[in-house]
Amino acid sequence: MSGRRSALVVTTAMAVALAWASTALSEPLDRTVLPIAPTARAQIGRTPADSTPAPWGPVRAPGGAPNILLVMMDDVGFGATSTFGGPTPTPNLDRLAAQGLRYNNFHTTAICSPTRASLLTGRNPHAVGTGHLVDMSTGYPGYDGHFPRSATTVARVLEENGYSTAFFGKHHNVPAFEQSAAGPFDDWPTHLGFDYFYGFVGGDADQWQPRLFRGVNLVDDGVETSADPLDKRLTDDAIRWLHNQNAAQPDKPFFIYMAPGSTHAPHQAPPEWIARFRGQFDQGWDRLREETLARQKALGVVPRDAKLTPRPAEIPAWDSLSPEMKRVSAHAMEVYAAQLAYEDAQLGRMLDELQRMGELDNTLVVFIVGDNGASAEAGPRPTTNEIGAMSNRIRETDSQFVAGLGEMGGPRSYGNYPVGWAHAMDTPFPWFKQIASHLGGIRNGMLMSWPAKIPQDRRIRTGFAHVNDIMPTLLDAAGVPAPAKVDGVEQQRIDGVSLAPTFKDPAADNHPIQYFEIAGTRAIYDRGWLAGATPRRMPWDERPAAPGEATWELYNLRKDFSQSKNLAKAEPGRLAQMIALWDGEARRNNVYPIDERPNTVRGAGLAGGRPNAGRTRFTYWGSDVSVSTIAAPSFAGRSFSVEASIQAPDGASGVLMAIGSWFGGWGFYLDKGRPTAVEAFSQLPGDTFKVAAGEALKPGPAKVRFDFVSDGGVYAGGEMSITVDGRQLVRGRIPKTIAMPAGLGETLDIGRDTGAPVSADYGRANFDGSISRIDVELGPPPRGIAPQH
Q1: Which one of 232, 421, 580, 715 has the fewest beta carbons within 10 angstroms of its own beta carbon?
Q2: Cis link prior to 593 (omega < 30° from 0)?
């Protein structure tokens, strides 16, 4: 038979088979049990002539199912974007609002991991083990940091119902002790229903030098450089994925989830974008709140009678700042605005590409403008080193801030603005991120657009909505039921309700009751009323709250949009009923025990969950090893040794081992053959300490050993000595030491230094010899500190 004849026969056979599959799969499918079972079984005879095959072929999405683009930004307050009256121009969000719907009564959970868990599962956060940051897991049912198999994600449901699924950006739902190559990977995106993942796991990422994953594998960018911020890289990859998905099967709907991580710290943006906002925030945060409320009323996103809630005593008045700190603080806000505007531009690129491809008309776009209120975690003063400030006690002086103005927003700054701006970004509401009792922490703007099905309607959607409503809404739009059973596991209740009725009715309000709780801050919503406990500790304060019971407040939000008038004394009976209602919801959703401890105290319990808890010896076999810091040895407040068995060429240079970054880390390397140890306490001038040998190694094999003897105490210094083949070359002082490597997502690297380097002296220079092994040995932990390894 000729090749042409053979091809014709094969093609005909395939056509017949596909026609059979199409006919069989067009019969009603039971989509309530996943994976979806075929509608008929094969009948087996002795030959094909007396046998009937089972239908085969992929499950197809219901007819008319839309593409879905779900976007969630990070730490963007209600009053930040121009779309909701804020000071930062967001023309692409404005574009979505003009062609779709704008929601001004949408709620999150007040912090990121719980919001993201609710978003993906449609359940209340404590009901899916995510009552707080997954990094702060405490082992109680509501706080174990794991998605239960009884709460399948929206991605898995859509994937099993014929969608291509992809995730780009931040996934802060993997416990820190599972962020290593050893797994387990149950809570990673590609195990939660996403065919593809490109992004980062953890709370934030450096926009300039991020450590990213593709699937569950670190992107090996140790020597790769890019002039583009992370937001652009994520959008580039999303468009590339979309092109490939469309090329393979253009009639298959897609679900893209984009979670860029902007504008969480670090606030970083291209310098030309920062320059656009020069001088625009010199009036300060107090005046900006007034300007924002006026714009909000003009837009109609808040009622005309909405009141501006007062600035709490914990936030300094703008006029109380020195001229130098006014200048620094205004510039910090310029950087934030630039990052927000830049991310809006990336959304515009995505929308433009969907339009160019003819896909936008039948794409449901859901854009959630923040996973909680704006971040107050820096406190009354800004920071240029987020983790250093939280963990390594970095305290910058006014003169250091002024000297570093030109670095803010760039690769040498990992910044966050002062709390006054966070309060302004949450206009007109009280408080901010981490405060689940007040609207500044839990209310965010939200937009929906679906040109083929949702008509342009500029009326504001005013009904109460919650992030757990998104999964039911997406399934409703796709024509897919929530499954009763997945992989044999009965599914727990879905707490959210579909927002589809709001597509036509601006006043639709189908979510009557919702509880809130984050780190002891708590509230209950009941048909227009909100009762909440007065905050007892600020997000930046690592001291425990004072002993005693919380005081509760009461608000009628239907008459008091901004939560400005406390009615607790006027209506004690109603308040008591609502507190009892909160208690019932708390018991139903695994909220107890209430834990008001600071994150540093809660996190101390993680030691037992670390993959190498109690371990004091580590061996790394060769170069190109990267280990998450949670699985790496911790040098905090203790003596240690690092011994590298190497083969060195003449004048060998490059990194032997590094952990962390120039924001906080340790590096061990050769500089033209000279062994060198460096510790970056921070990126600030004078905070990098180096001990270097005065002579170079001879070519050939060598054992290079670095011994650090701690003075005792987490931040105390110590003495570093360097020996080669047992002969000491140098001894020197390291005056102060870090408690934690800085730069979230940074790793321990062998033979290179990925992400932001510890030292600018070597950059990312790979070792130009060979490494046989590196051995690390830890001394006892400092007194009073539980051993981390």
Answers
A1: 580
A2: yes
Establish whether the linkage from the previous residue to 263 is cis, with ω within 30° of 0. Answer: yes
Nearest-angstrom CA–CA distance, 689 and 708: 13
Rg of the chain (C-alpha set) = 28
Task: Collapse the DSSP code of 92 into the 3-class scheme (helix H, G, I; strand E, B; otherwise coil) and give the result.
Answer: helix
C-alpha dist (Å) from residue 441 to 221, 311, 315, 428, 532: 36, 15, 15, 12, 12
What is the distance between the alpha carbons of residues 141 and 380, in angstroms, rounded to a whole number?
35
Tell me how far apart the alpha carbons of residues 212 and 237 are, in angstroms, rounded to a whole number.
12
Token code pair at residue 538: 């600020």
User: What residues form DSSP beta bridges with 165?
Assistant: 255
Instruction: Provide the pLDDT for residue 393.
Output: 87
Say which residues have a Cβ less than 8 Å from residue 169's Cβ, sequence separation at least 6: 199, 200, 234, 257, 258, 259, 260, 261
pTM: 0.93
Q: Which of 504, 567, 423, 555 is nearest to 86 (CA)?
A: 423
For residue 67, the Cα-to-chain-centroid distance in whole angstroms is: 24
User: What is the set of domains in the chain, with CATH numbers?
Assistant: 71-382+417-586 (3.40.720.10), 611-778 (2.60.120.200)
Give the per-residue pLDDT at 22: 42
For residue 397, give the 3-state DSSP assignment.
Answer: coil
Other CB atoms within 10 A of residue 541 CB: 12
Q: Which DSSP helix (H) or strand (E) runs through 115?
A: helix 112-121
The string of DSSP letters for 534-588 reads PP-S-TT--SPPPSSPPPEEEEETTT-TT-----TTT-HHHHHHHHHHHHHHHHH
Question: Rounded to a whole number, what is the distance in angstroms from the first to the last CA of the chain?
Answer: 69
C-alpha distances in angstroms, 683 versus 404, 438, 679, 690?
10, 36, 11, 14
pLDDT of residue 28: 80
- Helix or strand run (H / E) with residue 447: strand 443-449
Instruction: List, in order, residues 6 or more apart from 699 with CB less than 8 Å away.
Output: 648, 649, 650, 652
DSSP 784: T
CB 562 within 8 A of CB 501: no
User: Tokens representing 722?
Assistant: 């360097």
CB-CB contact of 180 with 627 (8 Å): yes
What pLDDT does residue 24 have? 39
Structure tokens at 692: 């270097």
Q: From CA 369, how far away is CA 361, in angstroms rounded?
A: 22
Asked whether the CA dihedral 246, 249, 252, 256 is positive or negative, the reply is: negative
DSSP 785: S
In which element (H, E) is residue 440 found? helix 439-442
* Neighbour count for residue 491 (Cβ, 10 Å): 21
Alpha-carbon torsion angle 529, 531, 534, 538, nearest 10: -70
Q: What distance lies between CA 699 and its chain's CA centroid? A: 46
Q: What angle do CA 466, 471, 472 make, to 5 degrees?
A: 90
| H helix runs in 432-505, sequence order | 439-442, 470-478
> Is the peptide bond preceding residue 35 cis, with omega within 30 degrees of 0?
yes
Residue 669 CA to residue 681 CA, distance in Å, equals: 17
Within its chain, how far is the Cα of 22 from the centroid? Answer: 41
Average pLDDT by consecutive 10-residue portion of the chain (789 residues)?
38 38 57 89 92 87 96 97 98 96 98 98 98 90 95 98 98 89 93 97 93 91 67 97 97 97 96 98 98 98 98 97 97 98 98 98 98 96 92 91 95 96 98 98 98 90 98 98 97 98 95 97 98 95 82 97 98 98 98 86 53 87 91 92 97 95 96 96 95 96 97 91 97 95 92 92 85 96 51
Count CB atoms within 10 A of the CB of residue 368.
23
Nearest to 467 by CA among 438, 433, 444: 444
CA angle 617-718-783, nearest 5°? 65
